[in-house]
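Write out a record, focusing on structure:
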Amino acid sequence: MRLPDKAFVLAAGFGTRLKPLTDHLPKPAWPFFGLPMLIHTLIQLKEGGMSEAIVNLHHLPEKLREAVAPHLPEGLKVIWSHEPVILGTAGALYPWLERLGGGPFWLVNADTHRTIDFAAMARFHAQRGARATLSVAPLPRGEKGPIAVDTEGRVVGFLNSNIRGEPTGTQYQFTGVHLLESEVLKEIEALGPGNRCINSGVHLPAFGDGKPLWGYQCEGFWSDLGTPESYLAAHRALLASGDIPAGAVGRFVGEEEELDGGGRILPPSFLGEDVSGGMGSIVGPYAVVGRGVRLRENVTIRDCVVWDGVEVEENCEKAIVTGYGEIIIES
């Protein structure tokens, strides 16, 4: 089986739930273990066998391109698709129908983190002769999700619509990856240009018409990184497990050690290059600290993410600390 080798990456959104920091830096450019979120996604695509990725842009496009330029993975052709008017997750594909056609392709959210085996998902998709397959993951206990899947992987409930007469299935959350056949592009072409959503505007009508939709369950960790709480929690969870994302820029600290300048690092933590602190300063536990960060004397940061180049002048706990300001997570 030949793996799909083209992807469209959705990076145009506003990051509304992360305001006001996304007024200064678009969410796909936010650091996640030393690299912009978009770069982690592109690395996954490259390692998954992709040779080309089209990335759409709208909100602060130059800021995003500037942030990712030094880190673009070699061997992956990146094509930028600027949208002066945002087009949505299906409308974004319309200008690229011809280039994406001719076989299955991936549609991927730029700014979420998931563990996924692209080859295994492609096999699942091919074995079922699927039109569209979505990556899904189990829900936290007690939560309800937008997708219900039966034991064979067929979606039996989607966005509050259900297949009549079918069992209700198990509810899942969507983790940001679609594998789509060219048939879906024809459906988008029939709709015409404009701001359209792939889920409500394309998958839901097809699902209502009886066209099968499939859900591939991803193993391992996933987060949409979409709120300050989930952004901080994802860093903490991966520090706790030691499962640092591939390509992360920095080093994992699993044992207590000295910090340059007279401080200490408490595990688990993750540090970029040239981090230092005055006498009595403490980094960690559960701190992810960017390149060139400096702590003042007797300053402690724990359960925090600190972006590159920040000088930390006072104690911080459960916070995102940036050069644009900080967000403190209420306990």
In short: The first strand starts at residue 6 and ends at 10. The helical segments are 37-47, 61-68, 88-91, 97-100, 118-127, 182-191, 198-208, 228-241.
